[in-house]
Structure formats: C-alpha cells, structure tokens
Amino acid sequence: xxxxxxNISPAVIKRLPRYYRYLGALKQRNITxxxxxxxxxxxxxxxxxxxxxxxxxxxxxQQGYGYNxxxxxxxxxxxxxxxxxxxxxxxxxxxxxxxxxxYRDFNESFGYKxxxxxxxxxxxxxxxxxxxxxxxxxxxxxxxKHNDIKIAxxxxxxDQAPKIAKSMVNWGIKGFWNFxxxxxxxxxxxxxxxxxxxxxxxxxxxxxxxxxE
Length: 213
Description:
With 213 residues, the protein is an alpha/beta fold. The protein has helices spanning 10-28, 36-43, 47-55, 69-79, 95-101, 105-108, 140-147, 161-171, 197-212, and strands at 33-34, 67-68, 86-91, 112-119, 128-129, 132-136, 151-154, 175-178, 191-194. The strands form two sheets. Strands 5-6-4-3-7-8-9 form a seven-stranded mixed β-sheet. A two-stranded antiparallel ribbon has the order 1-2.
C-alpha cells in the first residue's frame, strides 16, 4: 500500500529521510539494534512519535528488542525509493548546478545518478562536471524522452524556470527539485520539492534575532 493510499501525513514523510540518515550513521558504527527511546534521545524526537511514524508503514519493531538497525534502514530506503537507482538531470549548469553534480553522496550513498546537465551558455556546453557532460538545452526534450527521465533539478534564474518546467512536464518529467527562487504552477500529478536557499537563510537570521531579543 502506498503512502498516498494510506493518507500518511506529509510531516511523517518529511521525517523519513532523517530517520534514514540517523540509521545510516548507526550502521557505520556497527550498532545492530536500537530502541525507540534511544533513537529519540539521538534525534530529539519523542519515542511515541517515532513509533507512530513507523507504524504507518508496518512498525518494524519488536517489543523487548527494539529495532534492527540494518533492517529498518533497508525498509525505510525502500519506502523512499532508494532501493533502485534514480536517474536525474540538472537544468542550469552554473555554480549551483555544478555543486550538485559534484555531490558524491547522491550516487554513493543514496542511489541518485546525475546522467546529464543542460545549459544555454556556450562557454559551459561541452564541459564535464564529475564525469557528466553539459549539453545544449536544445537537446533537453530529446534526451528526456529517449532516456525516460523522471527527475530534474532546476538551478535556473526565476524568469526561466516556470516556462521550461511546464515544457519538461509535457516531455515526461514527474518530479522537480526546484532551486529556482520561484513557485512553479504545475499539474497535481507532478511533485515539486522546493529548496529556496534565501528563504532558509532568512528564517535562520529571524530566529537568531528573536532569541537575542
């Protein structure tokens, strides 16, 4: 049963990657099992919240034993779609796009593989970033259709992102990792995960100021 069919809260889904990250750290330390209480102390989330979250997907724990770290890590990975390679493209190959392409954990830890980058700048077209070639954006439609690409990271200026995103939906893109400082108006069947860096930084400075006052 999918999370949509079970009407699982978006807040629960948002917490899953954090569980995955903490369990991965436990694995690296060769910790084989952990209780919800111990995990709550590490993550600063209540033990009851952890149990409620995981019960949405079957529970995975055993009374008196807790959670098997390896098994829970694997199962959450499956829920997050990390049990298979997820190929993605980056549209916009400036500094931010290149930084994303150079982030090794995408492939090595999480199974996301950047297979192509695109840009309009002739100075960037043809260069290679972490083994990935930057292509002319005129080749974008053909590449998406012929390689069945479903995920795209957008690192474009805000005036360019909405138009190209709409076209990419028509070509087959199902999900956008949107770094452009603009909200995208797309069909409900398309998933958008916004990463607005300036807004995050503003939230940080607000919290600093409010605590100082």
